[in-house]
Write a structure and sequence with these properties.
Strand content: under 5%
CATH class: Mainly Alpha
Number of domains: 1
Shape: elongated
Structural class: mainly alpha
Helix content: 55-70%
Bound molecules: protoporphyrin IX containing FE
Length: 132
C-alpha cells in the first residue's frame, strides 16, 4: 500500500461507525457474551440476574448496542427507565456494571478510543438506570 493509500485507509477507519470499529454484529456479540460472564461472576451484582434468561438478556443488550452504535438493527426491548423500574439500583451497582463492560472490552482487545466512547454512552444513561 502506498503512503497515500494508507492515509486514505486510516481516514476511512477514523470515520467508521462505532458498530463497524467493533467488528459489526459478530464483534458486539462476542463483547456482550463476556459482559454476561463478567456480570454473573461479579458478587456485587450477580444476584440481580438470578432469574434472568441469559440468551434473552444477551439478545436485547446486543440489539441495543448494535442499534446505538450505528448498525442496521432495531432495538425491540424496553427503554432504560422501564427496564430498570422498581429495582432501586444503586451507584455501586452502576459502577460494577460499567467495570464489567470495560473488562469485556479489554477481553476483546477494543481500542482506547472505542472504550472512551462506550464509557461516555453508559454514563449518559446513569440517571435512567439508578434509583428507578
Ligand atoms: C447503562 C447501563 C445499563 C444498560 C445500557 C442496561 C441495559 C439493559 C437492557 C437493554 C436490558 C433489557 C431490557 C428489556 O428487558 O427489554 C436490561 C435489563 C436488566 N438490567 Fe440493565 N442496563 C444497565 C445497567 C444495569 C445495572 C447497573 C443493573 C444492576 C445490576 C442492571 C440490571 C438489569 C436487570 C436485572 C435486567 C433485567 C433482566 C431480565 O429481564 O431478566 N442493569 N438492562
Amino acid at each position: 500500500m502506498s503512503i497515500t493509500e494508507q492515509a486514505v485507509a486510516a481516514e476511512q477507519n477514523a470515520q467508521a461507525s462505532l458498530y463497524d470499529r467493533l467488528g459489526g454484529r459478530p464483534g458486539i456479540e462476542a463483547i456482550v457474551a463476556n459482559i454476561w460472564e463478567n456480570h454473573v461472576s461479579n458478587p456485587l451484582i450477580n444476584k440481580r440476574y438470578a432469574d434472568s434468561d441469559p440468551a434473552e438478556v444477551k439478545r436485547l443488550v446486543t440489539e441495543m448496542c448494535c442499534a446505538g452504535f450505528g448498525g442496521p438493527e432495531t432495538y425491540t426491548g424496553k427503554d432504560m427507565i422501564t427496564a430498570h423500574k422498581g429495582m432501586n439500583i444503586n451507584d455501586t451497582e452502576f459502577v460494577a456494571v460499567c467495570d464489567d463492560v470495560l473488562k469485556a472490552l479489554d477481553q476483546n482487545n477494543v481500542g482506547q478510543r472505542e472504550k472512551d466512547e462506550i464509557l461516555c454512552i453508559l454514563y449518559s444513561l446513569k440517571n435512567e438506570v439508578v434509583y428507578q
